[in-house]
Amino acid sequence: MKYANTYEAIAADKCLSTLKSLIDLAGLADAVKGLSNSTTFAPTNAAFRKVPQSVLDTLTDPANISLLQNVLLYHITGKAIPNRCSFVNGETLTMLNSIPTTVEKKCGHINIVDAVGGKSKIVCKDSKADVNNFIYKINAVLIPAVL
Q: Which of 28, 93, 103, 107 gives a 20 to 30 Å CA spacing to 119?
């Protein structure tokens, strides 16, 4: 299915409803709608269930909106990666919050390694949000720093 933008693609996917809610809470809906030539690593609802409740409470506290924005922007890179074959083992991807991640390809699996060494595995096939933006569902939330 074709979508007008990345936000619309996320909103249409029931497995990404937590991500969509957090994007809305953080006030990033317009920014996500306006993405161009980007790749979003979208944590599934199951990925968010792995995050300790105390961390989610901190992120969703209105006093911590900038922290939530930082975490969400850590899931988007300004590089369009159209398919799994385009990922390069050991490649560094700079995310929209300017903090890098690393690509790890092993035995046919692709992981995105975050700033604290956590690994988020891509759990879906190639996904196109729109003509220039791509989404890959991941099984863990990327963490830009110790929370």
A: 28
